[in-house]
Structure formats: C-alpha cells, structure tokens
C-alpha cells in the first residue's frame, strides 16, 4: 500500500518511513497546496491534505505535515512562519535573535494530517527544548539550533530524533491509528 506524503522536504519523508514503512510504501508527492492563513498547524495540514487528495488523479491516501519552531520569549515566533523565516533570515540569524534573550526555551510542534478521501484525521506532537548556537550536521531546518537534553537535534541520528521529536510523536499516533483501523 502506498501513502503519498505531500512535502518538498526529504527529511520529513525519511522520518515518516521509520514509523510507516513496515506497512506502507511512503512516497514523496509534489503538490503545491495553498497554505491557508491560520495560526493552527492542524487546520493548515488538514486543508492541505484534502486539497492534495482532490487534485490527484488516483485515490491514494495523502499525508501532509506542518511544523514549526515556537520560541516562548518571542511570543511563539517564528511558529507558523518558520519556513519563510528559514528561507529569508536563515537559522543563524534566528540564533542571533535568540542569543540576546534571557529565556531561550522553545518548542517544536508538528501536525500530521491524513486523508483517504472519506476520513481526515490530524495527529500532533510537541517537544520542548532550548535555542542554542548551531551544532551538528544531521537533520534539517532548525535542528542545529534546537537543543534537547544537552544535544541538538542535528547531533542525533534519525532514530534518536524520532524517539524524542514533535514529528516522531505525531507519526507514532498516526501509525497506531492506522493499525487500529486495519482491525
Ligand atoms: P513542506 O511544507 O514542503 O513539507 P517545509 O520544510 O517547508 O516543507 P514546514 O512548513 O512544515 O515544512 O516547516 C516549517 C519550517 O520548520 C521549515 O523551515 C522546516 O525546515 C522547519 N522544520 C520542520 N520540521 C523540523 C524539524 O523536525 N527539525 C527542524 N526544523 C524543522
Ligand atoms: Na511548508
């Protein structure tokens, strides 16, 4: 069985495969869904999944993943704008902003939306951490500046990051839900 993962980010696909590949063939699917303006990752992901489902000329289940880094003392910035901020400022300059803060705590949040055309369901996960100067060359995105328990996510391998991460938690819920529906 195939699951189409609508994303431009191969790092996300790699992480999803670890949870889903015993049952599903997870394939990266190109579809430029219009991201609705919302502060809620779940709304953005669910609408994106439904749009992508409608747009394909097949009836393959779709997943979409919307994620972001939320820095507490910056009122949750960059949050839903994380992708834009990574592309424009870059993570080095996000660190520059955070460096001056007394409280550098933040969280990664992720929502994975699944739809099979009949049912749409969202699964969320979060992980707390601290924004630090960049370290490590694994992972992707903000991983080098996000430290959890003394290690940045970029210093961890995929398996270890998944065991702790926002996405890993959301994917674990999705995998459980899919397994339950099979029975
Ligand atoms: P798609 O929308 O095509 O899936 P994207 O990378 O733009 O790819 P998001 O909008 O969900 O995905 O990501 C928002 C930003 O957060 C983007 O800059 C990502 O690099 C970053 N991000 C998401 N998950 C992350 C993770 O696990 N570790 C580090 N950065 C992450
Ligand atoms: Na995006």
Question: What secondary-structure arrangement, pairings included, does this model have?
Answer:
Elements: E1 2-6, H1 10-20, E2 25-29, H2 41-55, E3 62-71, H3 82-88, H4 91-99, E4 105-115, E5 120-131, E6 146-148, E7 151-152, H5 158-164, H6 166-182
Parallel strand pairs: 1-2, 1-3
Antiparallel strand pairs: 3-4, 4-5, 5-6, 6-7
Helix pairs in contact: 1-6, 5-6
Inosine 5'-triphosphate binds next to strand 3 and helix 3.
Range of strand content? 25-35%
Main β-sheet description: 7 strands, mixed
Question: Largest beta sheet: what is the strand line-up?
Answer: 2-1-3-4-5-6-7
Overall 3D shape: globular
The tally of beta strands, per DSSP, is: 7
InterPro entries: ITPase-like_fam (IPR029001), RdgB/HAM1 (IPR002637)
Enzyme class: hydrolase
Organism: Halobacterium hubeiense
Family: Belongs to the HAM1 NTPase family.
């Amino acid at each position: 069985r195939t699951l189409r993962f609508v994303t431009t980010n191969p790092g996300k696909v790699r992480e999803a495969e670890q949870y889903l590949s015993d049952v599903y063939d997870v394939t990266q699917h190109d579809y430029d869904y219009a991201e609705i303006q919302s502060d809620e990752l779940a709304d953005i992901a669910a609408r994106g999944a439904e749009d992508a489902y409608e747009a394909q000329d097949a009836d393959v289940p779709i997943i979409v993943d919307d994620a972001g880094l939320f820095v507490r003392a910056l009122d949750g910035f960059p949050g839903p704008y994380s992708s834009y901020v990574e592309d424009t400022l870059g993570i080095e300059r996000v660190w520059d902003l955070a460096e001056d803060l007394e409280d550098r705590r933040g969280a990664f949040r992720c929502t994975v939306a699944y739809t099979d055309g009949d049912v749409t369901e969202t699964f969320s996960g979060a992980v707390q951490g601290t924004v630090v100067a960049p370290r490590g060359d694994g992972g992707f995105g903000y991983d080098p500046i996000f430290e959890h328990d003394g290690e940045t996510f970029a210093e961890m391998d995929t398996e270890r990051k998944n065991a702790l991460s926002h996405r890993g938690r959301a994917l674990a819920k999705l995998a459980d839900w899919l397994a339950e529906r099979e029975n």
